[in-house]
Amino acid sequence: MDRKDQLFKEIFDKNSKKIFHLCYGYTGDADSANDLLQETFLKVWQNLDKFRNKSLISTWIYRIAVNTCLTYLRSEKRQAKDELTENIIENKIEEYSEKNEQIALLYTSISKLEENDRLIITMVLDELPYNEIAEISGISEGNLRVRIHRIKQKLTEIYNQHARI
Amino acid sequence: MQEFDHIEALWAKHSVDVKISADDMLKQAKKDVSSIRTKSLLNILGMGVSFLIMAALWLFDFQSWTTHAGISIIIIAIGVYTIILYRNHQILTKSDFTVNPTEFIASLKTYQLSRHELYNRLYWFYTIALSLGMIFFFVEILNHLDLWIQLLLIGISFGWMIFCSTLVRKAVIKRDKERIALLIEKFERISNQFKETD
Questions:
Q1: What pLDDT digit, counting tens, does each position of B51-72 carry?
Q2: What residue segments make up the domains of chain B, in order of their start?
Q3: What is the pLDDT of residue B104?
Q4: Rounded to whole angstroms, how far apart are CA atoms B147 and A149?
Q5: Which residues span the domain enclosing A140?
Q6: Could you give the CA distance from residue A21 to residue B13 in angstroms, rounded to a whole number?
Q7: Between residues 173 and 192 of chain B, which touch chain A (CB distance below 8 Å)?
Q8: From B4, which residue of chain A is nearest by alpha-carbon distance?
Q9: What span, in angstroms and rounded, lies between the C-alpha atoms of B10 and A156?
Q10: Number of structural domains found in chain A
Q11: What is the pLDDT of residue B86?
Q12: Across the A/B interface, how many CB contacts are shorter than 8 Å?
C-alpha cells in the first residue's frame, strides 16, 4: 500500500462516520447517504494531492461533503429521488415505530428545512465548532450565530408540530 | 412540547454505522467503468470467435476462386472491425478515473464518439463487405443445392443482416449512448462539484 492509499485510509476511518451522519441527516435514508459518502470520499481521493493544509483536513472534507449534498438535490435527475426520499422518510416512521419513532421524526423534521439550513443544523448537531461551520458554509461567524438560532427554533417548531400529529 | 436540547440528545443517541470501507469504496467507484470495459472486451472476443469460425471454412476443399474470395473478404472485414473495436477498448483502459479524472472524462468522450462512428459510417462499410463476401461465397456453395434451399439460405442470411442493420443497430446505439452519457454525466458531476469547493 503506497503513502497516498495509507493516508486516504486513515482519513476515511477518522472522518467517514461523521460525514455519513451529515449525509444521513440531509437525505434521511441510509442508501442515499451511502452514495453521497462515496462521492465525497472519491473527490477527497482525487484531490488529496491538492490539499494545502490551509484549513483542517476535516473542514476540507466537510466542505466537499456539504457541496456534494447540495448538488445532490439540485441536479435534475435527483429531484425525482428527493420525492422518493420523502417517501422513504415516511416509511421509516413506520419502520421505526417500535424501535425509535422519535429518531425517525427528527429526520423527517430536518428534511422539512431549507437545503442549506439542513446542512448547517447537522453540523451543529455533530458539535462542529462555529468557526469551522462558518468556513464550510461560507457565512460570517456573526451571521451564522443568528442563522443557527433561527434554524434551531424552526426545527424545534417543526419537530413539535409533527410530534403532535 | 420539546426543546432543542431534546433534539440534540436524540441526534447523539442515533449512532450510524458506515458499512463500507475505504478499499470497498474505491472498488465500487471503479465498478461502473469496469462493466463497460468488460462488455467491450466480450465484444472483441465475440468478433475473434467469428474470425476463427470463418477461417476454419478453409479446412473444406472449395473448388471455385469465388468461395475463397468470399471467405477472404468476410475475414478481412471481421479482422478490420475487430482491430477498430480493440483500439476503442484501449481508449477506455488507458486512463483511470481515480488517478486522473480529467483525462478519464476526455477518454470517455472520445470512446463515445468512436462508438458512434463504429455503429454508423463504419458499420455500413462492414455490412457492404460482408454482403459482398457472402455473395461470392454462395456462388459455389448454393450451386449444389435445390432452388428452394438456395432461396431459403439467401433469404435467411440477408434477412438477418437487414434485421441487425436496422432494429438491432438502433437499439444498440441507443443503449450504448445512454450508458456512456450517464457515466460521463456522473464523473463530470463529481469533478464539477469539486471545482465549486476549491
A1: 999 999 888 888 889 999 999 9
A2: 34-191
A3: 77
A4: 90
A5: 3-164
A6: 12
A7: 189-191
A8: A156
A9: 12
A10: 1
A11: 92
A12: 89
